[in-house]
Amino acid sequence: MTPAKLLSPFAATCMVVANMIGVGVFTSVGFQLPGLPSAGPILALWALGGLLSLCGALCYAELVAMMPRSGGEYHLLREAYHPMVGFMAGWISLVAGFAAPIALAASAFARYAQAFGVNAEAHLLAAALVIAVAAVNLTDDRILGKFLSGFTVMKVLLILAFIAGAVFLPGGVHNSIAPKAGDGAMFISPAFAISLVYVMYAYEGWNGAAYVAGEVDDPRKNMPRALVIGTVIVTLLYVAVHAVFLWRAPWAAMEGKPEAALIAAQSIFGETGGKFMGFLIAFGLISTVASMICAGSRVNERMGEDVPFLKLLAYQNKAGTPVVAVLLVTAMSLAMLFTKTFEEVLRYVECLLLLSSCLAVLGVIGLRIRRPEAPRPFRVPLYPITPLLFAAMTIYMITFMARQHLDELKWGLVTLGAGLVVYVAGTLWQKARS
Length: 434
What we know:
Blueprint: H1 9-20, H2 24-27, H3 29-32, H4 39-66, H5 73-80, H6 83-97, H7 99-115, H8 122-137, H9 141-168, H10 183-187, H11 190-203, H12 219-248, H13 251-254, H14 260-269, H15 273-306, H16 323-339, H17 342-370, H18 385-404, H19 406-433
């Protein structure tokens, strides 16, 4: 059964925004201040991160408009390179690529909910969120689209309310965020380069709508819009939020602190500021978890459609929802939550996820060379600078992570090796049956 294309362009845009805005934007500035003690370089960091993410979104826009099918990197790499390359990307997503970040986001939701006054065990709160959101994902696309859109709009409105409070409330500190002498040297410092890596983590998710491309109305036209508009919205919000943090919060109190956003909220709103920010983050993570369960299940479903020995993953209910695919990503997320392994797993799959997106972006160049005659409803502007710029940044991030987490990288290679064994064994089994 093929699901009806019921996700609106607005819902697809909301999926991009929901995937991108997590906890990272609210925790990073405290770690950036010691190495970059000036507003100009920090704001430039977030603007540059948005520009690089937009480069990736533009490249995905060309690929998805050219090949409008759900599945994200699994589908794109399968078409741009070889079915085996696509399978490896899908394997990463299937075993941990979505389960680990879902568990991480749900765990963060639980901590902030507890701080807001919810009296329950953290792992039970996190599990309840995953199960509740998975239940919404088991409905049809129309209900899921409204759920994602509603929670994402509320998340954006809460962030805008925080920014408005900083502008109009007179209390608290008022730092200068104007450029100052010495800023230029910081732009070429090691601290700026290292901080950019962590800023890019906060921007992850710009490719969110690509996972549901086949379920969006008129994807050749609407998918590029969703990817680009969603990324631009988040970039503007990120730069504005950090301008507020730096303008209205005491820098000394934020330095080195992961709760920098809470400190800023307390400075602006007073005693209730921390609770407001805690509620904002916890509430916002609901749509993040929902969008990641949706995205992960669509990768699983597409693999089930293409790979005979995984065909169970393609099973749909009467609403056209991939039931087994949703249940699988939910079960793996819960397993990581209760075994408390999600942070370790996320570290070692991060390089693999970055490699998948880098290969997809470079696929724009490969397909332009190999299939120049193929219809391209959307073309990447400033080609080939755009894909090369994104690829260069991604390779830098992969190299940085490999140096920082060598042991985790080894586990990532083991995961790839296991995926290769499964692919070869499955292919041989399929040939033997035929």
